[in-house]
Amino acid sequence: MKVRSIVRTTGLWPGLVAIALLALSTAAAAAEVTPVPVDPAIHERLASALAGSISAGSLWLALLAAWLGGLLTAFTPCVYPLIPITVRYFGGMRQTGRARVIELALIYVFGMVLLYAGLGTLFASFRIVFGSALSSGFVNVAVALLCVLMGLSILGTFSLQLPPALSTRLSQLGGKSAGGALVMGLVSGLIAAPCTGPVLAVILAVIATSGELFYGFLLMTAFGLGLGAPFLLLAISAGGLQRVPTAGPWMEMVKMILATAMFVVAVYYVHNIWGDFAALLADVPYGGLLGWLLIVGGLAAGALFLSLQGRPSERFAEAAAVLLLTVGVSVAAFGGRVTTTDPGVPGIAWAADHAAQAARARNERRPMVVDFTATWCVACQELERDTFIDQKVRAEATRFVAVRLDATELTPDIEELFERYGVLGLPTVAFVDSSGAILPTPRVTGFVPPDRFLALMRQVH
Question: Fewer beta carbons below 10 Å: N end or C end of the chain?
Fold first, then answer.
């Protein structure tokens, strides 16, 4: 009966495509549990090419490598939250002309470039870790609140709580304002900042160690342009939503998809700063399985919502669908997982006392691995989830003295260690050889898979 109702209400193909879209969107949102689709070795090769081009004085090759590095960064998981934000922002410009949408899209990307070229250069010159603004609880709460407001406005709830003028303004999200587009670009650049990667690490190191601010500014600009290129296309395409019908089951389903995505992003930022909430999600048994069961329930509620168009109970079905999908994706992404590691191999024995462990490493003539991490660093979490848990990596780590330094809250001690190890972005995994020398290479400045990390460890003696 439900399927026949959907077909009668929307037509066979629109109804089925809408459900498929919702399924694909929730699956993509839950993709946090999968490895990065871009081979991390490509980032390393680009970083090497960039460093070689800089040493050879080849500006154009260095700019090209920086641009490609930014482009690849746009396809890493910690940039995924920008997709629904960009779609929502530009998708609301139904009354805006095509030329104006393109103009605002360019301003939006310019905001991202401005943050990287300006703040990136400034931070590196003062040796401030790029992306560390997300260590601030205020910033995380502000971004989470913004996402919640955007999700609620998508579902049309503001008209029930706020004056019509303010509701309209929020729902449009300043769609016709150049200043609004610039601010959204700056915020988007801030959200993407934790995706530093090897290429950006090379650029920041050039600025910090050589003092070549203008050269570094050009490289940061190229990196920002590469990062912004896919979002320019996405923004222009999202503006094309003005040709999609503004009412009916199809648009209601699109609203559900975007609202769910915004609420999941909000959960991610709350997860970053609220330790008890993060622990609660992490302790959910079989989080992946339970999450997918909830997602299936949300899809069923979404199908029910399509069949109830025009009836008083449709809003309850919509709310149930969004709630189930949001909780399901969040649990699948952050909940407990069943691992396949060998229980006979001890886990990496991370210690937090750097001074004591450094002295121990010197006395025992052992190499040391130092992991700089933070809760806001997505690539750090990927290393923990996919690399450090690997059986061979754990076995190899037994010959190291392992130190993990949590930089979620920046303290004078952490900043002093940043200075000592030359840390300019997270993640950074540094190695110290058995003589006590801090090695410039090998060094990990982004996500690397277990096999690659194992090969790097074996280079250290």
Answer: N
At 400, is the pLDDT very low, low, confident or very high (cuts 50, 70, 90)?
A: very high
Q: Which two tokens stand for residue 116?
A: 């990287």
Q: Residue 446, Cα to own-chain centre: how many angstroms?
A: 13
> What is the predicted pLDDT for the residue at 33?
36
pLDDT at 369: 97
**Strand-pair partners of 83:** none
Indicate whether 51 and 26 sit together in one domain.
Answer: no
Domain end point (choices 240, 270, 300): 270
For residue 61 the two structure tokens come to 């090759």
Residue 406 lies in a domain: yes
Do residues 370 and 429 lie in contact, with contact meaning Cβ atoms separated by under 8 Å? yes
**Are 157 and 96 members of one domain?**
yes
177-192 tens-digit pLDDT: 677 778 778 877 776 7
Same domain for 7 and 19: yes
Look at residue 345 and tell me if it is in a domain: no
Per the omega criterion (within 30 degrees of 0), is the bond before 427 cis?
yes
User: Model-level pTM greater than 0.85?
Assistant: no
Give the domain-ending residue among 304, 338, 372: 338
3-state class (DSSP) for residue 273:
helix
Angle at 103 between CA 143 and CA 114, to 5 degrees: 50
- Claim to verify: residue 332 and residue 422 sit in the same structural domain: no
pLDDT at position 206 over 80:
no
Q: Are residues 19 and 124 in the same domain?
A: no
Q: In 31-177, which residue ranges form alpha helices assigned H by DSSP?
A: 40-56, 59-73, 82-91, 98-114, 121-125, 137-154, 164-172
Tell me the CA distances in angstroms from 157 to 88, 145, 148, 161, 171, one per residue in order.
16, 15, 11, 7, 10
CB of 66 closer than 8 Å to CB of 199? yes
CA nearest to 69, candidates 48, 87, 88:
48
Q: Tell me, what amino acid is at 59?
A: L
The per-residue pLDDT for range 431-449, each reduced to its tens digit, is: 999 999 999 889 988 888 8
Instruction: Find the mean pLDDT for residues 402-406.
Output: 95
Is 191 contained in some domain? yes
One domain, residues 156 and 184: yes
CATH of the domain at 378: 3.40.30.10
pLDDT over threshold 60, residue 150: yes
Host H or E run for residue 252: helix 249-273
263 in the same domain as 405:
no
Domain count, the chain: 3
438 pairs with which residues across the strands? 432
Domain residues for 238?
Answer: 37-270
